[in-house]
Design a protein that fits this description.
Length: 454
C-alpha cells in the first residue's frame, strides 16, 4: 500500500473513541453558546434599563436583535457551510462570537448593545447548521447519528435551561455586563476542541451561487421575525409589526418566482419534495411555537400573578427547561430504535395536552400543580419534537445538503418561536390555540409519514 493510499484510508477511518468524544464536545459547546444567548439576557432587562437608560421602544431590542438576525441568516449560513466547508464556517463563527461578546459587555449605550447583539445573532446563525453538518460527518452510521443528535440537543439545551438562572445570578453578582463574559471562555474551549473535527467535503463551487435566492430568503426570514417580535411588543396593529410581515410575504412570493428559474436554488426542490423533510419542518415549527411562546407566557404569569422575582421565576420554570438537558438523550435512542415518526407524533400530542392544561388553569391564580403539569407537558413536546426533527432531517436529507437542510429546519424553528411569543404572549386563550395546532400537527405528521411509505 502506498503512502497516499494509507493516508486516504486513515482519513476515511472513523475517529478513535476519545478523539470522537472530544470532537463532539467541541460541537456541543459551540451550540450551547447559541441557546445560552437566546435566554440569558431576558432577566437582565430591568438592570439594562437602570444602567443604560434606553428609550422604551429600544429596550426590547437589546434582547430581540439577536433573534431577528439569527433567524434571518440561518438558511444562508447552511448554504455557505455546504459550499465553503462546515468546519471553516464553524470556526469563523465561533471566533466572531467570542470577540463580539466582549464588545457587547463593553457597550456604552443601548444602540451599541443592539448592534452588538445583532452581530452576535449573525455569528450564532453560522454555528448551528455548520455544527450539525459536522456532527453528521462525525457519525456516518444513521443509528449512531440519531443518538449523537439527541446528546447534542441535550447538552445544547443546557444553555436554554441555565440561561435564566445563570443570568439572574450574574446580574445580582455584578450587573448585566457579566452575562456576556460567560461566552469567551466557552468559545475558546470549543475552538481548541474544534481542531479535532472532521472536515466534510464542500459542495462543488462550480455551481453558480444563487445570490438572489439568498438575499430574498434572508430578507423574508428577518422581516417575518422582526414583525412577529414587534407584534409581541407593540401589538398586531402597530405599523412596525404588520409592515415587516407584509414585506416578508412579498419577499417570499418573489423568492418562489426566482427559485423556479435558478440553476442551483438556495432551498433545493428535491429537499422539500421529501415527505420526511416536510414532516420534520412542521414538527419543529409547531413545537417551537408552543414551547417558546408558552415559556414567555408562563414567565410573565409567574412574576405577575404569583409575585415572584426574576430569579425565583427562573427557578420556577425549571420543570419546563431542565428536561431539555436530559430528555434528548433518550429521544435520540427512541428515534434510533423506533424511527422519528412515532416520536414526533407523541411530541405533537403533548403540545395539545399542554394546551388543555393551560385551559384548565384559566387566567387567574391557578394551583401551581396545574402550571407545573403544563410545563412538564410542554417540556415533553419540546424534548421529543425538536431533537426528533433534527434527527429526521439528518437522516432524510442528502449528505451534500446536510447543512442546508439543518439551516432551513432551524430557520423555521426560529420563525415558530417568534410567532409563538407574539401570539401566545398576550392571548387569553393561548391554551386553546395549542390544542388546535397540536391536534392539526398530529394529523399532518401522520399523513406525511403515510405518504413517505408509499
Amino acid at each position: 500500500m502506498t503512502t497516499d493510499a494509507m493516508a486516504r484510508c486513515a482519513a476515511a477511518a472513523p475517529p478513535a473513541p476519545v478523539r470522537s468524544r472530544l470532537a463532539f464536545a467541541g460541537i456541543a459547546a459551540g451550540n450551547l453558546l447559541v441557546l445560552l444567548d437566546t435566554s440569558i439576557l431576558n432577566v437582565a432587562v430591568p438592570d439594562l434599563q437602570h444602567s443604560l437608560h434606553p428609550a422604551a421602544a429600544a429596550l426590547p431590542w437589546t434582547v430581540d436583535a439577536y433573534t431577528v438576525v439569527f433567524a434571518g441568516l440561518l438558511l444562508a449560513a447552511g448554504v455557505f457551510a455546504d459550499r465553503w466547508g462546515a468546519r471553516r464556517v464553524y470556526v469563523t463563527a465561533l471566533s466572531a462570537f467570542a470577540v463580539l461578546s466582549v464588545l457587547c459587555a463593553a457597550a456604552p449605550d443601548a444602540g451599541s448593545l443592539i448592534a452588538g447583539r445583532a452581530l452576535l445573532g449573525a455569528a450564532g446563525a453560522g454555528l448551528v447548521p455548520a455544527s450539525l453538518a459536522l456532527l453528521i460527518a462525525l457519525n456516518p452510521d444513521p443509528a449512531r447519528r440519531t443518538r449523537a443528535i439527541g446528546a447534542w440537543a441535550a447538552l445544547s439545551g443546557l444553555g436554554a435551561a441555565a440561561g435564566p438562572v445563570l443570568g439572574g445570578g450574574l446580574i445580582e453578582l455584578g450587573g448585566w455586563r457579566l452575562v456576556f463574559l460567560v461566552n469567551p471562555p466557552l468559545a475558546l474551549a470549543a475552538l481548541l476542541l474544534a481542531r479535532r473535527l472532521p472536515a466534510p467535503a464542500a459542495r462543488s463551487a462550480g455551481t453558480a451561487l444563487d445570490r438572489s435566492g439568498l438575499l430574498l430568503s434572508t430578507a423574508a426570514l428577518a422581516a417575518l421575525t422582526f414583525g412577529l417580535v414587534e407584534a409581541g411588543i407593540a401589538g398586531w396593529a402597530a405599523p412596525y409589526a404588520w409592515g415587516p410581515i407584509a414585506a416578508a410575504l412579498l419577499a417570499g412570493a418573489a423568492l418562489t418566482a426566482v427559485e423556479r428559474r435558478a440553476a442551483a436554488p438556495v432551498l433545493p426542490p428535491a429537499l422539500l419534495a421529501l415527505p420526511r423533510v416536510r414532516a420534520a419542518m412542521l414538527a419543529a415549527a409547531v413545537s417551537c411555537f408552543a414551547y417558546f411562546g408558552a415559556m414567555y407566557l408562563l414567565a410573565v404569569r409567574l412574576q405577575h400573578a404569583y409575585g415572584l422575582s426574576p430569579l425565583a421565576a427562573g427557578l420556577a420554570s425549571l420543570p419546563l427547561t431542565f428536561p431539555v438537558c436530559v430528555m434528548p438523550f433518550f429521544t435520540g435512542r427512541l428515534v434510533a430504535r423506533h424511527g422519528a415518526r412515532p416520536v414526533l407524533l407523541t411530541g405533537m400530542s403533548a403540545t395539545a395536552l399542554a394546551g388543555a392544561l393551560l385551559l384548565l388553569a384559566g387566567g387567574g391564580h391557578a394551583p401551581l400543580a396545574v402550571i407545573v403539569a403544563a410545563e412538564l407537558a410542554l417540556a415533553a413536546a419540546g424534548t421529543l419534537s425538536i431533537p426528533g426533527a433534527a434527527a429526521e432531517m439528518a437522516v432524510a436529507a442528502p449528505a451534500e445538503l446536510a447543512a442546508t437542510g439543518q439551516g432551513a429546519l432551524n430557520g423555521i424553528r426560529q420563525a415558530g418561536s417568534a410567532l409563538g411569543v407574539a401570539v401566545l404572549g398576550g392571548l387569553p386563550g393561548a391554551g386553546g390555540v395549542l390544542v388546535v395546532i397540536g391536534s392539526a400537527a398530529v394529523l399532518l405528521v401522520f399523513r406525511a409519514g403515510s405518504t413517505a411509505r408509499r
